[in-house]
Design a protein that fits this description.
The protein is about 70% helix and about 0% strand. The protein is mostly helical. The chain has helices at about 1-5, 15-40, 45-70, 70-75, 75-95, 125-150, 155-180, 185-200, 205-230, 230-235, 245-255, 265-275, 300-335, 335-360, 380-420, and strands at about 120, 125. Strands 1-2 form a two-stranded antiparallel ribbon. The chain starts with a helix and ends with a helix. The chain has one domain (about 1-420).
């Protein structure tokens, strides 16, 4: 136990913790400044106090991951996958006849036309937030075992194809359950994260570019059909709630014309207005100059831009980039390949989520229910981010231990060789 606790001191040799502390400060200040807007939707709630509780519970989860160690978490990856899949299945069954908005006390509540949560005594859980972490652990294991069997120079189209197919078999059930909640945001994040992990695993870029090109053509065609020829889609099965809901179609309409589509584009138009009026230094703390929904969660970046201007927004972007770079640095320097793949997955997940959250507020991509990691208010979001922080720090510790043991082993071999020559 003493050795384990002593090994924890190595986490102070990585800047990840410093950037995390910045995230905590940014989160609490941002939620505090967004509270007047949030109280217009949810009166009387102590959002800052709740966020402090979420971070405290998350800190316990981070320490638990450090004690348990990532190499042992790897052993129970399928057990965790089964639990998350079971919870997603419960949400699917319970959400079939859900009434939105749901009355208080509903086990599977419908909030903003989505059923993503399970109400437990005292708290609410969003299983999709944890499923994407479990999928990172599983895809990393698939990649590691595949690369151990097939060396890079021996890879062929067939071997790369099977690696992709093995990953899809694991990803597809989870993505299907998450998509029909509906939660297209998390579904897309999972796909992009897995794609990034497969690229760094050594799959030829030509295959990835081909698939990405086809996906891009399909996405552009679909958006244009939604905007210019919606009747074509409504006349086929694709408009079914379990595939694409009217709410998701409205999000695309609102994204294409936020200021001219009425209530459909109100979220984006108000968010753009808030960001635009912030100027260089913003309106000031708790200005509430422009109202927009979910100011403390999905639209926290708009609250920062409105009250603290371009300066505040740039600070958030810079801290996010520095944190991501530190995670990627741990992945590159880690000699344990499994840990390296896990860190790459976490890097891709965080980077994609940050870009999506900021991009949707700036009108670059459609609005989905994607939070800003380590910043937005939310129990599941913060807890999932803190678990990822624990995996990052655990990878860092195990990487240093592996490096130290390798160095000692080489020094012992060198000593024995020199001793043999002397004799």
């Amino acid at each position: 136990m003493k050795d384990k606790i002593k090994s924890f001191t190595s986490i102070f040799y990585t800047p990840v913790l410093i950037y995390f502390i910045f995230f905590v400060a940014i989160s609490l200040i941002a939620i505090a400044t967004a509270t007047p807007l949030a109280h217009m939707q949810y009166p009387g709630q102590a959002f800052v106090r709740r966020q402090i509780i979420f971070f405290s519970v998350g800190a316990v989860a981070t320490i638990a991951v450090l004690f348990f160690e990532i190499k042992y978490i790897r052993y129970i990856r399928w057990f965790l996958y089964g639990i998350c899949l079971l919870l997603l299945g419960v949400i699917f069954i319970g959400g079939q006849n859900a009434v939105c908005p749901s009355p208080p006390g509903t086990t599977i509540p419908c909030i903003n036309n989505a059923t993503r949560w399970i109400n437990l005594p005292g708290f609410q859980v969003q299983p999709s937030e944890f499923m994407r972490i479990v999928l990172i652990l599983i895809v990393a294991d698939i990649i590691q075992k595949h690369n151990e069997k097939i060396l890079h120079e021996s890879r062929t189209f067939k071997s790369d194809f099977w690696l992709i197919m093995k990953s899809i078999v694991v990803l597809l059930p989870a993505i299907a359950f998450i998509w029909i909640q509906p939660d297209s945001g998390i579904s897309i994040l999972i796909l992009l994260t897995a794609a990034f992990m497969l690229v760094t695993a050594g799959i030829k870029w030509t295959y990835i570019l081909l698939v990405a090109g086809l996906a891009g053509v399909v996405a552009i065609t679909f958006v244009n059909l939604v905007v210019y020829n919606p009747d074509f889609l409504t006349n086929i099965v694709i408009f079914d709630r379990n595939i694409f809901s009217p709410h998701q179609f409205n999000r695309i309409h609102g994204w294409q014309d936020p200021f001219g589509s009425g209530d459909v584009g109100r979220h984006l138009s108000q968010g753009l207005t808030a960001m635009g009026t912030g100027g260089l230094f913003g309106h000031g703390f708790q200005s509430a100059a422009v109202f927009f929904p979910e100011a403390h969660t999905d639209f926290i970046f708009a609250a920062i831009g409105m009250d603290f201007g371009l300066i505040g927004s740039v600070i958030v972007v810079v801290v996010s980039l520095l944190f991501n770079f530190s995670v990627l640095n741990i992945a590159v320097l880690n000699r344990d390949h499994y840990n390296s793949h896990v860190c790459v997955g976490i890097f891709a997940s965080l980077m994609t989520q940050q870009f999506w959250n900021m991009g949707m507020i700036l009108g670059l991509i459609p609005i989905t229910g994607v939070t800003l990691p380590f910043v937005s208010h939310g129990g599941s979001s913060i807890l999932a981010s803190m678990i990822m922080l624990g995996l990052i720090l655990s990878s860092h510790i195990e990487g240093l231990t592996h490096k130290r043991n390798t160095t000692i082993f080489r020094e012992d071999i060198l000593y024995l060789e020199e001793k043999d020559l002397a004799e």
